[in-house]
Design brief:
10 helices; globular; 7-stranded mixed sheet; about 25% helix; alpha+beta
Length: about 650
């Protein structure tokens, strides 16, 4: 029998400012908040006619479900299995599927911090590379596979409420690129979900905290807090400013504004577990590193030992029959592990410093710190945070299994157009996690300057007000039609990750850690995998410049009085509009040519004093719309000419 858990949140920040006497509209459907993690999925729903978020339990009455599922063999009649049930066949279960969204094909099978052992093939359709995953002679796209997980989430929510659900908000890491976000939106559409917005998970946690721990009605002055999230495979820090009622652009319901973010995509509980395994292998028989089953069992015990050492000084790792006729026993001390973990502690500290620096602030300006995720419980991580923010006490009040999902559900309520009574909404602002780059290249020898322009990381994104979607205008000088490309910047982490053995089989559960895979250079050596390259988001043909220049030249020849502006003539002044929507997806939406004309004196008159006066029309500016054609998505476009790409489009 399914248990249902009701959150004790009275009325979250986005719902707590409703007027007395408002009536619920029974026509409003339920709204779903999805904390869509790489390893775990957590769900929260706001039911029809309600303003309160409920946490949804899975079939095992747990608050989180593994991001794993199993497709049975075609000849069998077994249904698809999700969560822990999928791990009955770990070699066939699909895990860490979120990491494949929006990614280019990698022949090594490595995507983010994970290596996948399913057969991957490139999909070269539409002249850009995507990934196809093969199993039992069937091929699947990452969008389709993630859609299965989202459809399962939708089904769980509908079973919880007894109603159909279509609207949702999904959390994503702040480092997700536009390509990854677009791929996730496609997966949601396949699953029958209408995504009101993608929301950075740190922002969702901040909304939950404001609802549970702050009261914007009584808050005196602004309050700046940092939310530190160390999960299984990634670490993020989000610096947030809370403004009381009467502040912010809304001037009524307060504001929640993200000031800066920092992250490390490969630092999490899995990295700490990998160090424990590395330490155990030093004292184990050399054959263990070459036995898949032995490594699997050792990983499980290593994660147990890590948890024991979070509260104790010593732990004993015992594995019977690790190899045939060989038992393994080793005593671990916390101080030995902390020496191994020291580089990881430094990386965790850098994530915090990156967030504070991105906001243009200093550590002493942060008035509160809250931690979420499971890996923050490592004593060394807590000690580093306490040292950084002393004398601020590190808060541990948020439930990591609920916070982001409930924050996403609150945002869904704020964005839902269906009336549910009068709800006063604070102003919510997020930031662009990664820098965007616009490059321009002319066709047929035309010159475009400047050739490279940037949208800086930290650019404010308006989440609630669709009329305030961020738009950046770039002014270019072009001698003809040209190609504009949008890129998402890469990240240089500057460190290396160690492979721990010949095989590390995918293992999920409470002892989970990521797949590291086969080490071709030998056991225990380092590999440089801390750099993520630039990612192409899309290419666009800007058409009409040459035609406009030709028309301008003819007009100048016909009317000798007409003088072209300093940037017209040989080159055209072009403005390109880059828009970033509330989900963080960037797109070129418009392009214009600016025509400036100066007309010489055209009229002479004599005033009453007998002095002659000349009247000037002065400079006239005209905007001419150009045609913007998207000629390619991100990932692997070969060097086609402008004409070939336009024909393909």
């Amino acid at each position: 029998k399914e248990r249902r858990t009701m959150s004790l949140v009275a009325l979250p920040i986005l719902m707590s400012f409703f007027a007395v006497g408002s009536a619920h509209d029974n026509t409003a459907g339920a709204l779903l908040g999805i904390d869509f993690g790489s390893e775990w999925i957590k769900l929260s729903v706001i039911s029809q006619g309600s303003h309160r978020a409920d946490t949804i339990l899975n079939e095992n009455s747990e608050r989180k479900t593994m991001s794993a599922f199993l497709i049975p063999e075609p000849a069998s009649n077994y249904p698809r299995q999700f969560g822990e049930a999928a791990m009955v066949k770990p070699h066939k279960a699909f895990v860490y599927l979120r990491e494949l969204l929006g990614m280019e094909y990698n022949p090594n099978g490595t995507y983010g911090p994970h290596q996948f052992f399913h057969k991957m093939i490139p999909d070269c359709s539409s002249k850009f590379y995507k990934i196809k995953i093969m199993q039992d002679n069937q091929t699947y796209s990452p969008e389709y596979l993630n859609a299965m997980l989202l459809y399962y989430s939708k089904a769980r929510a509908e079973a919880h409420t007894g109603k159909n659900i279509s609207k949702c908000v999904i959390t994503v890491p702040p480092y997700f690129t536009s390509s990854q976000r677009l791929a996730l939106l496609s997966a949601a559409r396949i699953a029958g979900l209408k995504v009101l917005s993608l929301l950075n998970d740190g922002t969702a946690v901040a909304l939950k905290y404001a609802a549970e721990n702050l009261n914007l009605n009584t808050l005196r002055g602004n309050r700046t807090m940092l939310f530190f999230d160390m999960g299984a495979t990634g670490t993020k820090a989000t610096l947030v400013r809370f403004q009381p009622v009467g502040a912010g652009e809304t001037r009524s319901a307060g504001a929640v504004q993200v000031l800066g973010v920092g992250w490390d995509e490969e630092l999490g509980g899995a990295a700490f577990t990998a160090c424990v395994v590395q330490l155990l292998l030093r004292s184990a028989d050399p054959r263990v590193a070459r036995e898949r089953r032995a490594i699997t069992r050792l990983q499980k015990e290593a994660n147990k030992a890590k948890q024991v050492l979070s509260a104790n000084r010593e732990a004993v790792v015992t594995v019977d029959d690790l190899l045939p006729g060989l038992d393994f026993r080793h005593s671990l001390r916390r101080q030995d592990l902390e020496a191994e973990w020291e580089p990881l502690f430094a990386r965790a500290e850098q994530v915090v410093l990156d967030a504070v620096t991105a906001a243009g602030m200093t550590l002493d300006q942060v008035k509160g710190v809250e931690v979420t995720g499971g890996a923050w419980r490592v004593p060394g991580v807590q000690a580093r945070l306490a040292e950084l923010f002393f004398p601020v006490v590190i808060g541990k009040s948020l439930n990591a299994d609920e916070a982001a999902a409930e924050g996403a559900a609150m945002m869904a309520l704020a964005l839902d157009s269906t009336p549910r009574g009068r709800v006063r909404q604070p102003d919510v602002k997020d930031v662009l996690g990664r820098e965007l780059k616009l490059t321009a290249a002319g066709a047929l020898g035309a010159v475009v300057a400047p050739a490279v322009l940037f949208v800086p990381a930290g650019t404010t994104l308006h989440v609630l007000d669709a009329t305030k979607w961020t738009t950046i205008n770039f002014t270019l000088s072009a001698g003809g039609d040209f190609l504009a490309s949008l890129w998402c910047s890469g990240v240089e982490h500057g460190t290396t990750v160690k492979e721990i053995g010949w095989w590390a089989w995918p293992m999920l559960g409470w002892w989970s850690w990521p797949v590291l895979g086969w080490n071709p250079v030998g056991h225990g050596q380092s590999r440089s995998s801390r750099t993520s390259p630039e990612q192409l988001l899309g290419r666009y043909a800007i058409i009409g410049v040459a035609r406009s220049l030709g028309k301008e030249s003819r007009m100048g020849a016909e009317d000798k009085r007409l003088k072209l502006g300093p940037r017209a003539g040989a080159n055209a002044e072009v403005v390109v509009w880059v828009q970033i929507d509330r989900s963080g997806v960037a797109d070129i939406i418009r392009a214009e040519r600016i025509v400036r004309r100066t007309v010489p004196p055209f009229k002479t008159s004599t005033c009453s004093s007998g002095r002659k006066e000349e009247q000037f029309l002065g400079e006239v500016m005209e905007r001419q719309n150009l045609t913007v054609v998207r000629v390619g998505n991100g990932g692997g476009w070969s060097g086609l000419s402008l004409g070939e790409e336009a024909d393909a489009a």
